[in-house]
Predict the structure.
Amino acid sequence: MYLRLGLVMLLLTAIVGCDGLEKKQGMGKYGMMDPNLPEYTAIEFFDHMFHDDDLTEALKLSSPTLKRLISSYHTNRNAQRHVLNLRFDKVKITPHTGSAGRNEFSKESKVIIFFEGELNGKILKDMRVVDLIRDGKEWKVDKISIK
């Protein structure tokens, strides 16, 4: 009887412990990048551009100027091709970790983002320089350029 009760309690604990929601993997080294950093916003932006089905979330992280430009292309693939000049089937996105500045009080920031992925079976590596601006308490991607 106690064995059955113990098994039922263990089963209930396992079911209640699993909330069924998929947790988003953290970004940065060891998944501990602070969401208030411009690097976090840049990675989130590109993650939405390459992994989402639509542009909705990427547009939320864009400045008004970039938002108008990206939304004119209507799909992620078109925006990747024409705005970013980057196309991947699978991609890993990482920020440059060499900067040691503090961005908590700045209004603008530049971030270097590295891309490593596949397109049609070929391995591609590339990088982009992202200009971000602060909009209230949030960072917004303003410009993307090739270094």
Summary: The chain has a mean pLDDT of 83. The chain has five helices and four strands. The chain has one domain: 34-97+104-145.
